[in-house]
Amino acid sequence: MSTSFTPFASFGGGMLIGLAAVLLMALHGRILGVTGILSGLLRRGDPRDWSLRAALLLGMVLAPAGIRLIWGDWPSLQVPVPTASLIGGGLLVGIGVSYGGGCTSGHGVCGNARLSRRSITATLCFMAAAFATVYVTRHLIGA
Amino acid sequence: MRLFSALLIGLIFGSGIALSGMINPAKVLNFFDLAGDWDPSLALVMAGALAVAVPGYRLVLARQRPALAPAFQLPDTRRIDLKLVAGSITFGIGWGIAGFCPGGALPALGTLRSEALLFVAALGGGLLIARALRRAG
Fold this sequence. Notes:
The complex is a heterodimer.
Chain A: H1 7-28, H2 34-41, H3 47-71, H4 83-100, H5 104-113, H6 117-141
Helix pairs in contact in A: 2-3, 5-6
Chain B: H1 2-20, H2 25-32, H3 41-61, H4 82-98, H5 102-109, H6 114-136
Main location (chain A): membrane
GO cellular component, one term (chain A): plasma membrane
InterPro entries (chain A): Sulf_transp_TsuA/YedE (IPR007272)
């Protein structure tokens, strides 16, 4: 499934992601890592902490509807993989980010922005693994 | 104010994910497909995010405390160990298989697409499995 290069939308969208991370740190003093926010939600804890996480995630989930409202159209979302890959991939992602202590947002944006050596290492590992995996699934197995 | 600001931050983040294309597994997988139909867009997502977050964090973290909380909560681990490396590689493999990462999938839930729902359910399952494994080990 081919997609077109969208430099302006992607850079602009990236800036919004960075802005959200800076605002969360400035106001609430927290790292904007979806892994961390989600794992805290799956744990019973301090209700004030839980409600903050829930509000953040609710905002994220509402975003496509907001875009639909302003733009008139849903953001494009195409899934070129079978159901089994979504489930298997989801399980691997969940286990991996749990042990790795973060994902693209927590390590890739926030940690790298703080020049954390852990986050730079994590980012190099997951990017390299994803490039290798897609090469295997698309050019070795799927060819 | 506390929860409203968090909701708004989530909304900004989710809009960024949606506009940038990170919400779209086809685009994500094409970024990783160097030998195929390569779409370099996602490199610009990371560049845009860091262009704001690097100077933004520098300004914010120079302050005494955040505006609505008593203190900054920053991770204090510095160690680069097998857990970090193996966990991140596992995450990358799953990302390459499914095309969704957690930050892409949560906003994708809002489109009510069954694929996003399935992925997020599996992601939650994976987080709970890892937690159970750690408790057992």
